[in-house]
Amino acid sequence: MTTTTLTPASATDRVASDREALLTQRRERIATVMRYAVLGLVGLVMLYPMIWLIGASFKSNAEIFTEIGFIPSHLDFGAYVKGWKTSTEYTFATYFLNSFLITIPRIIVTVISCVLVAYAFARFEFWGKKFLFSVMVGTMMLPLIILRLPQYLMFKEFGWLDTYLPMIVPSAFATDTFFVFMLVQFLRGIPRDMEEAAQIDGCNALQLLWHIIVPLLKPAIISVIVFQFIWTMNDFMGPLIYLSTVEKYPVSLALKMSIGATEEVEWASVLAISVVALLPSVAVFFAAQRHFIEGASSSGIKG
């Protein structure tokens, strides 16, 4: 049986090595604490307006304009009740229903049209493909405001004014080019092995799309749904231009109407119903958070 003896030099080296390891661990621990502290501080700064919004919905007008803190003196849900009733003959239930009547059909036609167009750009070769794709990407640079007048005149000729069609039908033709571009980039990163195997088994293009491509596109499609839901719920200019009947107003217009309905604005009621208006978008985001982040940050499958 052999025994290992440590010389004074080797013992000193081991002590120095252990001390260096402890110092490295301490530095890493301090860096981690500082990193999370900075992230927490930045997160608090970003979330503070939302926290203040919720707290201010329980305050009076005087408290809202004199106190910067977000904690109310007492919890009073009267502002929520009054804001929900609105100053018109309709409650916010009507306006939420109107928003969903615009949002849900628009999401459906957006997903169908954008997936089809992205599939064509990513998987087929045809004359003028690069030029058309460049034109499509170029339209993303156009300010939407310059399209409002010609669109308004066109929809007026169609007799679609004061209906939801001007806000839904254009999306059925893949006019939301950002979504097409995002889906194309995602598709370009998907290997074609499964598609080639399915083609050997006799699948046509539509069968490939439905059985192979769409399941692989699930994260990107969920990203499209989340983006379109939030953008449509927040859209103000479209309903303002095309709708003239109060009964058809979505939530975005109803909120503006509640601000300008009286000379003295009950800001607590406006803030309270603003909190309620945020709930659908927040719920959709958190429900699809995992797939949404994966689809928005990826451009394909990484093996």
Automatic annotation (TrEMBL):
Its main location: membrane. Residues 96-288 form the ABC transmembrane type-1 domain. It is a multi-pass membrane protein. It is found in: Cell membrane. Keywords: Cell membrane, Membrane, Transmembrane, Transmembrane helix, Transport. GO terms for cellular component: plasma membrane. One of its GO terms (biological process) is transmembrane transport. The keyword Membrane applies. The chain crosses the membrane at residues 36-55, 95-119, 131-152, 164-187, 208-231, 267-288. InterPro entries: MetI-like (IPR000515), MetI-like_sf (IPR035906). Pfam families: BPD_transp_1. Belongs to the binding-protein-dependent transport system permease family. This is Carbohydrate ABC transporter permease.
